[in-house]
Design goal:
Length: 733
């Protein structure tokens, strides 16, 4: 017999048991009742607050370390699987129970704080934030990379800063693909079915106890989507899910996979997100002051708003609706790379809408298609979500100063009467959530030497720079060394497990125990394997690289991670080349590729490496954020001057590769050769000597001075609190 440990699960069971059986199988319960004095763990596990707040994660980890890793750091899953004996052992440990209670009190206090108002953004009229993916934590696998992580960090900052904001997204039952590298080095993909009970999301019910659902017209049918709620501290993230029994089988899969399927799937997903999202807000009785379209995926929401207006204004035209819609909508573009900007064939697009849809906007078909074209009158042009968003929003922004400039140039044809620098696209530089990305070792140091309120001090760059000087060189170096050792242990374990399939500890005499050496300069490189990220730049001169790696006194080691798009064979070939280098014994010991890059691996890497490398093709890195995460842990960036690094680099807090701008008209091949030359020579002549130079006290004091400078200058400037403040001041209000 199944047992349910609290009312939430009971209501869920009675209200939707049949649905859940069909959706997720029947296996959804805790194996054992939680002991009375640990029951609060269930509440804690239901809000992602535990993840970024001191003392939260360690509670779950200490409940049962091996199980924690087996459950991939998912507290819900862990509470389902933990053994009865373990639960009662911990329930009999007063220190553990006291820790749990202290954390629960902290959480309760945090959640009870009232939301603030910022100009016209008020608790009654919040910001509605729309995004196709959210990277809040690994255990909610509805993100693929940078965009999702950024959205997750945005929500965490909104929570910490008491900003009234609700977020809308999609619940992808199969999430994003998991990466496995086959024996021949080729990437394979698999998808994992999420069991809802094991995720920290809950069904949304209305006042009458009915499941909140909306419908969207798709392929000649009304498709239903149900709503789930994830709690990100004080922020509500609503997720729409078409996997309900009343839908036809194909429609249940609309929200099946993140960025999976064909163009048609993409269009209908975006209809559910944009139009469905607005309908959901109406059902929930939420009247936003601002709609934030984070990337163009949600831009159909502007059409839904126009339709609403026209329905209540009988004599109005679409042109009358535009200013009303624009006044409420703001848009952030995230990439100048073509593949990142959705465009749809007009026929495919029209086939996904009711024939009468353009007429419901009081537009002809061609006028409707024109909304998504750079040149409204060019009938050959595809329908782009970015032009639609730019047209229908009162504000558009890129995600770094440089990206603002690049975007103005990229979209200037939409504004034929304006010169490129007059194009109304501004910028807000991306940032990352300090409490998520700063390692607990540094967090602890800051709490001890700066104060528990260190994230408040972070808001003032000067005060922060002063505060970081309270840390001694030993403090910084010791924290870093601990983190680096942890990264190496993690990497050995992952390498062993992936090679043998065995998740037990690495045996003492295994070759995997000899991988890497904590005294060697360690460089991290992890990101999507996309063309413009130039994964093979480092490999251009294999001999020179091996010399660096194998230097007798001053060697270098590399850690790589990243996924290739399933359909991108070029990217997979690049990965295969890299992975197959391990046949070389030097390379095997000094370079490693960790499979299945995700938020967890990113955390180990950015917290533990000495140097974080990034070599995108200028000017295609809109911002980049992983380097910001490394900098917050004293990692030194070694990067092409593009995206955020142009704003961050000050010659001391890291290293630059290549020039600030390419010469006009220069061939990509020549640019690559020059950048590779710069990469090798900066490594050989600057980074390696600087790292291995020791001061009189035996510490690399000059290196530590650079680390300190990175902590001082980059942590405040690239925190998501700063980013959100910019959004509030420059964009939302
Ligand atoms: C931060 C992060 C990214 C973004 O990395 P960039 O290439 O620097 O934009 C991608 N994936 C994961 C898992 C991350 O944590």
């Amino acid at each position: 017999m199944k047992e349910y440990i609290n009312n939430t699960l009971l209501t869920m069971q009675t209200a939707t048991s049949q649905q859940l059986e069909q959706n997720f199988g029947s296996n959804f319960s805790y194996k054992y009742n939680l002991p009375e004095n640990l029951k609060i763990l269930d509440t804690i596990s239901q809000n992602f607050y535990w993840f970024w707040t001191t003392g939260g994660m360690s509670i779950f980890r200490d409940l049962d370390y091996r199980l924690w890793e087996k459950c991939e750091q998912n507290p819900r899953k862990m509470l389902c699987e933990v053994s009865e004996l373990r639960l009662w052992q911990k329930a009999n440990e007063p220190a553990f129970v006291a820790r749990v209670n202290r954390f629960a009190e902290k959480m309760e206090k945090y959640l009870a704080e009232p939301t603030k108002s910022f100009g016209k953004i008020t608790p009654e009229n919040p910001v509605a934030y729309f995004c196709a993916e959210y990277g809040v934590h690994n255990s909610l696998p509805i993100y693929s990379g940078g965009l999702g992580i950024l959205a997750g960090d945005h929500l965490k900052s909104a929570s910490d800063m008491n900003v009234p904001l609700v977020a809308i997204g999609l619940f992808y039952r199969f999430g994003y693909f998991r990466q496995k590298i086959a024996h021949d080095g080729w990437q394979e993909e698999r998808y994992i079915d999420s069991f809802q009970n094991e995720l920290a999301i809950n069904p949304v019910f209305d006042a009458n106890g009915n499941r909140v659902e909306i419908t969207v017209h798709i392929r000649g049918r009304e498709v239903t989507a149900q709503a789930w709620l994830a709690k990100i501290g004080r922020i509500s993230l609503y997720l729409l899910d078409t996997n309900v029994p009343q839908n036809q089988e194909v429609d249940r899969l609309i929200t099946g996979h993140l960025y999976g399927g064909d163009t048609e799937t993409r269009i209908v997903q975006e209809k559910v997100l944009g139009m469905g999202g607005v309908r959901l807000l109406r059902k929930l009785g939420i009247e936003p002051s601002v709609y934030h379209l984070n990337e163009g995926h949600s831009a159909f929401l502007t059409l839904e708003l126009a339709k609403e207006y026209l329905e209540t204004h009988e004599n109005a035209t679409f042109a009358d609706a535009v200013p009303i819609v624009r006044e409420k909508c703001v848009f952030t573009t995230h990439t100048p790379v073509a593949a990142g900007n959705d465009v749809f064939h007009p026929e495919t697009l029209l086939s996904c809408f009711k024939d009468s849809f353009p007429a419901s906007l009081r537009l002809s078909k061609e006028e409707f298609l024109g909304l998504g074209r750079v040149d409204e009158n060019d009938h050959a042009e595809f329908f782009g979500m970015t032009p639609l968003a730019i047209r229908m929003c009162r504000s558009a922004n890129g995600v770094s100063e440089k990206h603002g400039e690049v975007s103005r140039d990229l979209w200037k044809e939409m504004f034929p009467e304006k010169s490129a620098d007059e194009v109304p696209i501004t910028y807000v530089t991306n940032g990352v959530h300090a409490l998520t990305w700063v390692a607990s070792d540094f967090n602890h140091l800051y709490e001890k030497k700066i104060g528990e309120n260190w994230t408040d001090i972070l808001k003032d760059e000067k005060a922060w720079a002063k505060a970081v000087n309270y840390l001694s060189d030993e403090d910084i170096w010791n924290a870093h060394t601990l983190l680096k050792n942890r990264l190496i242990a993690f990497m050995r374990q992952r390498a062993y497990t992936s090679a043998t399939g065995d998740s037990d500890p690495v045996p003492e005499h295994s070759a995997f125990k000899n991988l890497f050496n904590p005294n060697i300069l360690t460089i991290g490189f992890a990101r999507r394997v996309a063309g413009y990220k130039r994964w093979n730049l480092l490999m251009r001169d294999g001999e020179r690289l091996l010399k660096l790696i194998d230097h007798i006194e001053r060697p270098v080691q590399f850690i790589f991670a990243g996924k290739a798009h399933p359909q991108d064979r070029n990217a997979k070939a690049i990965l295969q080349n890299l992975v197959n280098l391990k046949g070389n014994s030097t390379w095997f010991q000094r370079a490693i590729f960790i499979e299945d890059y995700d938020q967890e691996i990113a955390r180990y890497m950015v917290q533990g490496v000495d140097v974080w490398m990034n070599v995108p093709r200028r000017p295609l890195e809109a911002s980049g954020t992983s380097g910001q995460k490394a900098a917050m842990n004293g990692g030194l960036n070694f990067s092409i001057l593009d995206g955020w690094w142009i704003e961050g680099y000050d010659e001391v807090n890291g290293f630059a590769i290549g020039p600030l701008r390419d010469e006009e008209g220069m061939d990509d091949a020549i640019i690559d050769a020059m950048d590779a030359e710069s990469l090798y020579s900066v490594l050989e002549n600057e980074i390696v000597p600087a790292y291995y130079e020791k001061g009189e006290n035996g510490l690399p004091t000059k290196w530590i001075a650079r680390m300190r400078r990175a902590l001082q200058t980059l942590t405040p400037q690239f925190s998501s609190d700063r980013m959100l403040k910019d959004y509030i001041e420059k964009i939302y209000c």
